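Submission checklist for the structure archive. All mandatory fields must be present; incomplete records are returned to the submitter.

[x] Identifier: Tetratricopeptide repeat-like domain-containing protein
[x] Organism: Phaeodactylibacter xiamenensis
[x] Residue count: 397
[x] Sequence attached
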Amino acid sequence: MKLITTIVFLIFTISLFGQNTDSNTTELVREIQAELQKAQVEIEKLNLKIDNIEKENNGIVGVSNTIISWSGRIFAIFAALLSIATVYSGYQISQIRKIKNDLEELYKKSKREIEDQKSELESLREDFKKDKEDSLKLLFPLIRGQWYFYQGDYEKSLSAFLQAKKIQPNHPEIIRNLYRILANTGKTEEAIQNLEKLYKEFPDDKVIKYRLAQTYRRNGQLENAEIVIKDAAINDKYPPALYEYGSILMNSNRLKEAEEIFIEANRQFLIEEGVTKYWVFVNLSLTQLLLGKIDESRRNADKVFEIVNTQLKLAPSNAQLYSNLGLSYLLKGDNVQEGKSEFLKSTEKNLPSGIAKSMINKIELIDRVKESPINQETIKLLKSYLEKEKNTVANNG
């Protein structure tokens, strides 16, 4: 803009010079005016180039070349001006020289800024190259981590995410997945410590809130869990947060509130992902059973059975799916022996200890309404499995 203003001023000034002069001088002034008008058009184009520099791969080079080429041309015009201005006052000459000096300074400043931008661009290119290399290194550990997680092999998933963490130690997505797996594999205290650090660093991250609240709940810290997750559930309507808040309410025996929250969680999952989640139906069915809504509970247990069987076709080794299939039998109260068998399959497929503890808690709640020797036998089976896992870890340590 400063450059354009300068050119306009020059055209106006030269038009004044053209008055009261002979015809030859007047013609020369007109030619210089024409040249300056051309310069004005080119400088306007230059401004457009600068405005769009981010859109052009070689924008900096192009703008730099334009400035260099036009600086020579405009300085030549100033030289012509000074040659004919000798017939005018010293004040006029000094003004022209001042404008020339201002313009020279403007060009120098523009050139410096362009060089600085070029250096910054080179730095960005180097950073991008490094990020690209790191991203390629991360690709396979992340794929393996997710694959093993959905297949229910949490130990291999944990190993893959630990490998990814070595490449990018502070990547939030890696850390969130890592501590989810730590919680599922029974490393609750370690998961809580690290999730609390993450929560302080990223207090608005809904996924971190969800993972921390879930780990608090599984560790029996229901008040802490509610404090962390309530806002993300009630105000943000984040579906996993709604599910977790409902689970906290259920375990706090606030059953009516829990039922409403689970229904809302399913509704939000449908809105955001187009599907319902079997684990929401599990806790909804359990809550309704505790409220004495036997028919509603059974209908939702049937949905658990249907969804889990479909998912087992895709992930036949997922121990968590077998445990939830077993739970659906216990919730309905018929074929409970089949339910126990499904839990046995889940332990044979290395059910994560965090999930096993959660299942014990759920079966104990079911047994409050539907007392059954099979419920007690299943609880005993899971506790025996946890003890064996604990001894295995101790021996390996």
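[x] Structure attached
Curator remark: The first helix runs from residue 2 to 17. DSSP finds 17 helices and no strands in the chain.
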